[in-house]
């Protein structure tokens, strides 16, 4: 490879011009990792902001409704449920209640011991149990799905944050090796001939840290946001379970308004 004589010694461009294909591939890998992490950071930030905004407006409208049935048209609207885990929880709670009522019109199902003797209720284990059990299973399923959806992309950020410094370190080691081989072939080992290439090789470690630090900060921030949102979803699911099981109006909920 011909050295890049136009680049300033000690600069990144000079280092890339002096290094071989391996060093350039490592640098290209770090650039791609940086681009990918920033894409995920921006997309995740936009998604979280939209989710918080839609959830806040939904909860305000939800707790102002006099009852679940009167809020049903708003809850089950496709536009309301899009990117809104709170609306999805409420819709699934209502659907579970209606499905349970259709299977057991009297809203009374046998206990576990009686189910074993009668062969179950509703034709499946999923439909067995009381109204509270049935709604609990539906809400737990929605919570699991929303938790998985919230964590989408975080694995990519965690991977970049943990591997980018090592990729940069490997580039530094490879650059130092490449520089020492060149110095050995030249037969001269003065301080300026050693310090320049070695110093340039350290740039790769700095690039690796530059890629990893934003990914670490974003990962920690989004993980905390997901944890807070998951706690709010759990509290809302408990409120829904209480409302559906007892048949109380929304105004009677101890947690309203939110």
Give the topology.
Layout: H1 12-18, H2 21-64, H3 72-75, H4 78-81, H5 85-103, H6 112-118, H7 131-150, H8 154-186, H9 191-246
Would you summarize the structure shown here?
This is MotA/TolQ/ExbB proton channel family protein. It contains 9 helices and no strands. It has helices at 12-18, 21-64, 72-75, 78-81, 85-103, 112-118, 131-150, 154-186, 191-246.
Helix content: over 70%
So how many helices? 9
Stretches with pLDDT under 50, minimum 5 residues:
1-5, 106-122, 251-258
Instruction: Give the termini separation.
Output: 66 Å
Describe the structure.
With 258 residues, the protein is mainly alpha-helical. Helix content is 75%, strand content 0%. It has a domain at 12-94 and 150-221 and 237-252. It has nine helices and no strands. The termini are far apart. It comes from Amphibiibacter pelophylacis. This is MotA/TolQ/ExbB proton channel family protein.
């Amino acid at each position: 490879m011909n050295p890049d004589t136009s680049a300033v010694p000690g600069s990144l461009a000079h280092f890339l011009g002096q290094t071989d294909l391996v060093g350039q591939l490592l640098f290209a890998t770090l650039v791609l990792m940086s681009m990918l992490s920033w894409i995920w950071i921006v997309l995740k930030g936009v998604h979280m902001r939209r989710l918080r905004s839609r959830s806040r407006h939904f909860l305000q409208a939800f707790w102002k409704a006099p009852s679940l049935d009167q809020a049903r048209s708003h809850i089950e609207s496709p536009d309301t449920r899009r990117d809104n885990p709170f609306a999805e929880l409420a819709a699934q709670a209502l659907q579970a209640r209606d499905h349970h009522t259709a299977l057991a019109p009297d809203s009374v199902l046998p206990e576990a011991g009686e189910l074993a003797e009668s062969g179950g209720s509703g034709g499946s284990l999923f439909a067995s149990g009381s109204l509270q059990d049935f709604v609990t299973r539906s809400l737990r399923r929605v919570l699991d799905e929303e938790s998985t959806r919230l964590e989408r992309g975080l694995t990519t950020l965690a991977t970049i944050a943990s591997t980018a410094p090592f990729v940069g370190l490997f580039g530094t080691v490879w650059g130092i090796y490449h520089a020492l081989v060149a110095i050995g072939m030249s037969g001269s080992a003065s301080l300026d001939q050693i310090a320049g290439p070695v110093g340039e090789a350290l740039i790769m470690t700095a690039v690796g840290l530059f890629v990893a630090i934003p990914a670490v900060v974003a990962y920690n921030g989004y993980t905390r946001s997901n944890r807070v949102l998951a706690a709010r979803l759990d509290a809302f699911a408990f409120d829904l379970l209480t409302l559906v099981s007892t048949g109380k109006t929304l105004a009677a909920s101890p947690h309203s308004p939110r």
